[in-house]
Automatic annotation (TrEMBL):
Keywords: Membrane, Transmembrane, Transmembrane helix. This is Peptidase. The chain crosses the membrane at residues 12-38, 134-157, 192-218, 335-357, 369-390, 402-419, 431-450, 456-474. InterPro entries: PepSY-ass_TM (IPR005625). It comes from the Bacteria.
Length: 489
């Protein structure tokens, strides 16, 4: 039994309306989300010549903690100190306080500041769209809901979408080719699209709701809202104020949980009678982000937070993050997420393009809107690349957010003023190709000594630039046929 025609029409109208309302922002989320699947690898690429080791002796961690907190002397005491333990994605030890973040050498000495400003800039785009945190989470969470609605609505609006899943008319008319790519990639990525949109909505809106509940019921204490899931602060009794050693906690983990890998060591309220130690340990072959193992200041094990073996709701909540970002299963899963994320980005790009082409075919072209869409599609990745150039020239605190949004606004203004989509798309694509290839070459040339992981990213940037260059040159040579637009080419 087929879907009634009236429902199909309404679904198609709703699909188009949501796409028009949120198309540009969804494209930015898909693009930035695809990039930060490998956020640890980007961090390593941004600072390629920092000391690396897959393990650090507990005594070295003690020396490092003492050195970092001594460097913070005279400042407001940190509420938490985080020790990032080396892993395959980022084989470096990083200590973060409320005032600084530094890399640690094998002997426990401070090697230098953590300065991956561009990576944080891209993460901020995906998490918050660079808006204030609560507003940004609200907008991004709402966009996750819209993306899920688009995925479901697209299936309802096209009853033959599964039957035609492998039928691709790439050489037909531009409208048919775009529609086929949009629909086929939409089908192939449907489970992925639903998973990331729903988990993204949960991650964004749950935090917003927690702030609202905290303001209404707990005097603004957000931690009280999350206590049923993540547990509350322990009351282990007064502790000596000397800095705790990490030797006993790490020895306990090695003896009692040799299959678990400590991901973070968290020192709560260091130097106070309330201090205690948490180890966030990753559980292999599990979607949960890990479980918390808590130790008093003397290093004695006290309890876990039961993220791995507690109520089903706890385990579900602990699994949302990894499912959204693909941070499970190692590099193979990350590569799959990158491919699926790129496909979802293409789906988000072609949707608006199809609508614009249909308007032109009906004799109602929107040349200025076509220019705006071209500027968005090709201008966003171009400004991301330019932001890295600015970070390289001016340091990690360079105004990358201002550059990105002002630059993108200027390009959109140019698209609106010229109302010629194809030449603008060709120019932006050519500039992006040259910039990506240039960044890849320059970064590799400046890296001494050569590090394999960052070099792979340099090669990927170079190859992407090389792949885009002939496409841009071919379009420039052909020129722009009259009465035709190609915002996503």
């Amino acid at each position: 039994m087929g879907i009634p025609a009236d429902i199909v029409r309404r679904a198609l109208a709703g699909h188009a309306a949501i796409g028009l309302l949120a198309g540009g922002l969804l494209y930015l989320l898909c693009l930035s989300g695809t990039l930060i699947v490998v956020q640890q690898e980007w961090q390593r690429w941004e600072q390629p010549n920092q000391p690396e080791a897959m393990a650090l002796e507990p005594e070295a961690i003690d020396r490092a903690l003492a050195a970092v907190l001594a460097a913070d002397a005279g400042k407001k005491p940190s509420d938490h100190v985080f020790v990032h333990m080396p892993n395959a994605g980022l084989p470096r030890t990083v200590i973060t306080t409320d005032h600084q973040a530094v890399y640690i050498d094998r002997d426990g000495s401070i090697a230098g500041p953590e300065a991956h400003g561009w990576t944080e800039f891209v993460i901020g785009l995906h998490y918050y769209l660079h808006l204030p945190s609560i507003l940004g989470l609200t907008v991004v969470g709402a966009l996750g809901v819209m993306m899920a609605a688009l995925s479901v609505g697209g299936v309802i609006a096209h009853p033959r979408i599964f039957r035609d899943a492998f039928r691709l008319r790439a050489r037909g008319s531009r409208q048919l080719a775009y529609a086929d790519w949009h629909n086929r990639l939409g089908v192939w990525t449907l489970p992925f699209g639903l998973a990331v949109s729903i988990t993204g909505a949960l991650l964004g809106l749950a935090t917003v709701m927690a702030f609202a509940i905290a303001a209404s019921w707990y005097g603004g204490n957000v931690e009280r809202v999350f206590e049923p899931v993540f547990g509350g602060e322990p009351a282990f009794g007064p502790a000596p104020t000397a800095l705790p050693s990490m030797v006993r906690p790490l020895d306990y983990m090695a003896r009692h949980h040799p299959d678990l890998r400590p991901d973070y060591i968290i020192l709560h309220d260091p130097g106070t009678p309330r201090q205690f130690v948490q180890i966030l340990a990753e559980h292999p072959r599990r979607l949960i982000f890990g479980d918390y193992y808590e130790f008093d200041a003397a290093g004695a094990f006290r309890r876990t937070r039961h993220m791995s073996d507690g109520e089903m709701g706890k385990q579900f909540s602990a699994s949302v993050y990894k499912l959204h970002f693909g941070s499970f299963g190692g590099l193979p899963v990350k590569l799959i997420y990158i491919l699926l994320g790129a496909a979802t980005t293409i789906v988000s790009a072609t949707g608006m393009s199809i609508w614009l082409i249909k308007r032109r075919a009906r004799g109602k072209p929107s040349p200025r809107l076509e220019g705006v869409w071209c500027a968005t599609l090709w201008g966003a990745p171009l400004m991301l690349a330019l932001a890295f150039v600015l970070r390289t020239a001016a340091g990690k605190d360079a105004p990358m957010v201002a550059l990105f949004w002002i630059g993108l606004a200027l390009l959109i203004g140019i698209g609106t003023a010229t109302a010629r989509a194809r030449p603008l798309a060709t120019a932006l694509r050519g500039a992006l190709a040259a910039l990506l290839a240039g960044i890849g070459i320059a970064h590799a040339a400046a890296m001494a000594p050569i590090v394999a992981g960052p070099l792979v990213i340099d090669l990927a940037l170079l190859l992407t630039g090389v792949a885009l260059a002939p496409w841009a040159a071919l379009r420039m040579a052909r020129g722009a046929p009259r009465g035709e637009m190609a915002p996503a080419e």
